[in-house]
Recover the amino acids of this structure.
DNA sequence: CTGAAAGCGCTAACAG
DNA sequence: CTGTTAGCGCTTTCAG
């Protein structure tokens, strides 16, 4: 591995001068600069960032902690963050926790050891203390939360209006004539899940429709729970005419349940979900969805993190950025055939 | 940020001793070890990996270059790699190139500057020289290619049997009675795409069916090209009865084309594709697919890379690992209604 | 404009 | 077992 010293020797200058041409930190005579650049080319030199990082106390690396890249919501989020970060030559180190707190803690530790400049995190559910996050902030590590708010933590967060988005969607279902609307929620340990449930309740309440307990089922945001709870709901004596599912993967499980039970969507039951699915335009049923701007969340979050890192926003109070959702009305919620009689 | 020195002071030992308890590099008396561990806890100390990396010339970071995390094939690949890497405490730095060679080159440069221990790369199409890869290897950087073989490069690669997988799929189509089978290929600059085309030709040849030029269309592995070429094929005077699409995203485009043209799948045209889609069990049509073990490719590739990094396999010739594909027969290729007469 | 030199935080001899 | 010390490759004063 060639070093700055070898470049200096080959170019016949001091290492300070080489450093100056690389970083543009001070003026260098044309003759010397050219010699240095030539040497860099010839020796295929790549300045050692780890040495540089050690010296300047900045690594140019950002950590990103998500639950599972395999969940279709996250790739967009990651891509948004990466695109924002890359503009400033930052690297993104991603990690999956599968929503396990232990992994999240461990990853924080690893990330801190590697001295990332900041971290973007979609927090795992179930931690009301978030000591590892507190500790990291105390140590001066900039952190921006995405999508989910950690309970009882004053921290930068970019998310969406879960309550409003859900309410709007339920209102759409009501406008379609549905009165018997069930919901599969996420884990209520997550504020995100509670907010969506709240949007559901608000919309029903405003329409003067009582909330029925047996039509509220708590899932865990994974496909399997959607499948299981979908089956349960379908076997209720009085089946709901519409079902709102609190995220996309659970909806996939619900679709399997529908198929197995021989219940057709949208003809026999209307369906709508939180989170859009990138491929829904290509398959059937086309699913009505409260679309989150996942790419924008990642992008905006990364931008905010960069600001915090640059200390441009020194001492500013934590920002709560809420991006708008978009209700995408598709066939799954509009093709219901009203039961006659 | 607390340093090893502060820990040493607080514990009343030398920094060498602290280093020894952290890394287990030498025996330390119980009393001292406990004092050190206590200090580490109290000060929330995280050993500075960048300083460590500089010293030991190993960063514990691996780069991964893919074309687009947003393409459903890649999340699995990344996850497999991450899981394999994490077992040895390695970090994964991912990058998207959007298949642009310029970005790939740039990323290689960035990765080398950061002194990653190795890189996993799904090469971008169109580079017959791959100078940046050659240079990196010359400098001693272990590299393992995934999925796509860079032309004219002797290098470790883990991929699948594209020819055999495709042939098997076409044979299935033939067995269903189809004689008029079209194909949408990937960019022929990619060996992967050529191999799949080859599998198609071989299967037809073996069945004594001539290959018709107008039924071979070259796409670019993106949805839009599938849409466009799908439309073209549908408007051929003699429409094929079956269509093989060389990857999943293009198939999504084809499905849109079908819907717009009012051609129903599988009733009016059979469909099969290379690459499985994770969600196809939840939607219609359920798509017949040559499934690649994406997770396994990532996992195996990372394992191989780790071996190369450890130098356990010093001087061994490049490995070509081919993982098996699995033909998943679903309704899109079995529900065709033979034209009578 | 240029070179010399201190030191970022850690590991790995080495001497005791 | 323990402490001391020389760098790893770079940036950044500070003189000149």
């Amino acid at each position: 591995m060639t070093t700055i010293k070898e470049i200096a020797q080959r170019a016949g200058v001091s290492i300070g001068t080489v450093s100056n041409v690389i970083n543009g930190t001070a003026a260098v005579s044309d003759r010397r600069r050219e010699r240095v650049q030539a040497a860099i080319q010839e020796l295929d030199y790549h300045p050692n960032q780890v040495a540089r990082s050690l010296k300047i106390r900045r690594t140019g690396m950002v950590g990103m902690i998500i639950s599972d890249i395999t969940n279709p919501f996250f790739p967009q989020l990651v891509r948004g963050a990466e695109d924002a970060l890359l503009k400033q030559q930052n690297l993104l180190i991603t990690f999956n926790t599968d929503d396990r707190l232990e992994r999240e803690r461990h990853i924080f530790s690893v990330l801190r050891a590697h001295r990332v400049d900041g971290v973007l995190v979609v927090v795992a559910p179930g931690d009301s203390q978030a000591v590892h996050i507190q500790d990291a902030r105390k140590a001066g590590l900039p952190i921006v939360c995405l999508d989910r708010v950690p309970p009882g933590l004053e921290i930068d967060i970019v998310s969406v209006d879960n309550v409003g988005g859900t309410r709007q969607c339920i209102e759409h279902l009501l406008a379609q004539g549905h009165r018997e609307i069930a919901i599969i929620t996420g884990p209520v340990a997550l504020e995100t899940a509670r907010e969506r449930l709240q949007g559901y309740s608000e919309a029903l309440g405003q329409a003067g429709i009582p909330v029925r307990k047996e039509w509220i089922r708590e899932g865990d945001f994974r496909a399997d729970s959607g499948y299981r709870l979908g089956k349960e709901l379908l076997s209720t004596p009085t089946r709901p005419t519409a079902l709102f599912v609190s995220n996309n993967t659970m909806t996939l499980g619900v679709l399997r349940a529908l198929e197995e039970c021989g219940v057709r969507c949208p003809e026999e039951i209307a369906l709508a979900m939180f989170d859009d699915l990138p491929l829904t335009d290509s398959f059937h049923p086309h699913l009505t969805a409260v679309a989150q701007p996942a790419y924008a969340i990642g992008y905006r979050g990364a931008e905010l993190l960069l600001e915090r890192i640059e200390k441009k926003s020194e001492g500013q109070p934590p920002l709560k950025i809420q991006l708008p959702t978009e209700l995408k009305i598709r066939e799954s919620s509009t093709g219901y055939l009203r039961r006659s009689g």
